[in-house]
Amino acid sequence: MPDRGGGPSGPRIRVGRPSRRVRTLLMTLGVLAVLGMAFIMFAGFWTDWLWYRSVNYSSVFTTTLWTKIGLFFVFGLLMAAAVGFNIWLAHRLRPPLSAMSMEQQSLDRYRMGIAPYKKWLLLGITALVGLIAGASASGQWRTWLMWVNGVSFGQKDPQFDLDVSFYAFDLPWYRFLLGFGFAAAVLSVIAAALTHYLYGGLRITSPGARATAAATGHLSVLIGIFVALKAVAYWLDRYGLAVKSSDFKATGNWTGLRYVDANAYLPAKTILFCIAVICALLFFATIWRRTWQLPVIGFGLMVLSAILIGGLYPAIVQKFQVQPNEQAKEAPYVEKNLEATRKAYGIDGTDVEEYSGTSDTTDKAKLRADADTTASIRMLDPNIVSPTFQQLQQMRNYYAFPTNLDVDRYKGQDGAEQDTVIGLRELNLAGIPKNNWINDHFRYTHGYGVVAAKGTEATSGGRPVFTESDLPSKGDLGTYQQRVYYGEKTTQYSIVGGPQKEIDYSDDNGEKTNSYKGGSGVNLSSPVNRAAYAVAFNEPQILYSGAIGEGSRILYNRTPKERVEAVAPWLTIDGDAYPAVVNGKIQWIVDAYTTTNGYPYASRTTLGDTTADSLTANNNQRAVVAQQNQVNYIRNSVKATVDAYTGDVKLYQWDTDDPVLKTWMKAFPDTVQPKADISPALMEHLRYPQDLFKVQRELLTRYHVKDAQTFLSGSEVWQVPDDPTNTSGNAVPPYYLSMKLPKQSEQAFSLTTTLTPNGRDNLSAFVSVNAEAGTPDYGKIRILKLPTSEPIDGPKQVQSQFNSEQDIAETISLLKRGDSQVEYGNLLTVPLDGGLLYVEPVYVKGGGLKYPLLRKVLVTYGGNTAFEDTLDEALNKVFETEGSTAEPPDEGDGEEPPTSSDPTVKAALADAQKAFGEGQQALKDGDWEAYGKAQDDLADALERAEEAQAKVDSETEKGSGKNSDDKGDKSSG
User: Among 888, 875, 890, 852, which Cα is nearest to 380's?
Assistant: First the structure.
């Protein structure tokens, strides 16, 4: 450093440049860091591409990717060009520098400072705004694809006579373009104003003119563009009124024009459009006039008009014209809302029938017989018996069943179709003997087998009557691929097919091993693939583990919902995927919806709210994917399947008329297969989806009426009741049930629910939809409307009466002895001969048992209530009839088994007596497991006794004796 004076300088420390070795090291580290960051970005992209290719939906990945890239570059470049051009133009129009004021002298330092870097600064600013704008635009890929591929709805809105596709597909894109234009105009004005100020085109404190003529003209044009865009916004707002949301006491989230919209807002938007156009022209005129006087006056007039015409005038119309006679004024618009909402949610074909709720039939025997034929009353509640399946059929701790099982239809040994409760024995990593990386991801990779039980029966001990059970599973379902690599509980990745063997299942002969041959997943033989997954999954062992070798494949995204959502990101997924055995394979069936928020006049609903009930409250797996999506149009347009072994995903077009699905099929060709490709075997297991029915029933609480005056009065508003079987306070879930409604000749698999008056507990309506796919009436909603003059008890009242009856309360108290718990099953409602039959199974989980067993059945009809051990007994008591089948003696009856002199019979009866005594003792001890075993032993002994006695009788009476066809029914119905 130079000597600044002040005497001789002292010792100086020289800071030299780093050595070449250090510089080389730093450069190497820098390059490695950049390469590392680049590879991390590449790993995410590459693993996504590999996964989509592995499921044969690479076109979804590429279409989405190229659309995002195209939107990013187009709109990023447009924004960068707009802002960059205006900065360049403002710099080009700068005034020549002359004698400067203090303000200009201060700015001169900045001008001098950035002078060497002007080009780089311009590039940096434009690049930054371009990146932000491009990233924002790429998120609009759905809007772009729907606009460019949109098809006609074939329906027109009643106000503007435009096809619904304009509001669903076109208007959202126009609004995006308008928003982008506003952003570009505002950023350009700000950038140009700053540049003009920096180079003297605008002055704040300097004497003389505040702006040069060039700056005035430039900024006026930009503001004129902004005002012109505002004029376009006013014009689009006219159409936006048809899909505008507003709270309206009669409809909730109202969409569409009301009286004040049609008679105040609509003309106001037209007037404001004209004023904005004039104001924009005044700003453009400053190019020649060089004064802002008229444009500023025009802009002020536009703002004032927006306040007076766009705000005050509609408020006056609402206050003085609408409110004094609201029903008459709003009725025509409510009729439009009624029609549009019913069409948009697929409830326009709903049949509403009057139903008395009380039976005129005096023939008790007929009522009893009709109770057997009207419905296959399901005693096995799929939302309660999962712990029972777990205890009796888990077999190994590393298997588990979902919290809520599913109801489907299968043919029994007699060839008749029956309601069946079904679940898969899925992998449960929490039950693995020792958790480590190899066990979690290589050895324990899959579940095994289906477990199914009759929905209408239980054993005398309260256990399910299994039609498919054991490990490997066997029963009525025949031969099928039992390994479950993809399921609702399979949320972790597995690496299969390589040198490390997998545990297939265990039996008495030890563990069986297996190597996956399903062809699913991504091959890890490539070092690049292994490195990419090591980075993507943050698991370095994937890169170097010896357990990975030739043939190793990585499986992930393994839940059915994840897979369908990934291959069809434009679909909304139902909360309940369910398994079915189809053509020798376990297939997960997933219902998927197309939705839009742009159906004119149709009221909006929030999917997450309307699909919540007592089952979803504590079960995230049953929640709809689009929790907070507000929609006003929904269709179950796609039925999807996911193979539990191979993970193959197939999408089938279900609603062939849905324009939203047709639009997406144009955007993603060859991803959705035609409806005709659905096999008959698969069709047998398709059903009406729960979440769609929940949305529809919520709308039907108000939109079951077609008269505007009744709708506005609110006298016919219903509500979905709370689930009376628990204290969660959440809505009662709909139930699948095979039943026959009035005027129907045979039972149909249906989805049912009840509705009550708003704020009251008596019954307003029973709602049922035909859930049996492939039948002509599939999707047909029927409402049985109960009279208001004679209130009929609703579910909550029935449950309250049940809990308050002394005999029942005492029995419940007895069942709760010790540490036993009582759980109430689904309270099923069945219309029967003009009345309503309520049936509710009651489960007990007590003693040493950790799982519920069916112990009692509640039946109520016409004011008569029965609380018996079996459904048959309860129905017989309610209808005061004798059963057609003899029941075996139950330990609770206190009856002694009969005696006989034949040794075989005596031995069997002795066993029965022993089982009876053991059951009595177990009942006293509250040991329900021992009680159930004793019941089974008793039934077996009595059966042996009857067979032996029949043989004796046949021999002694020489062929004229009795047969053994009247054996007591061991099942509890």
Answer: 852
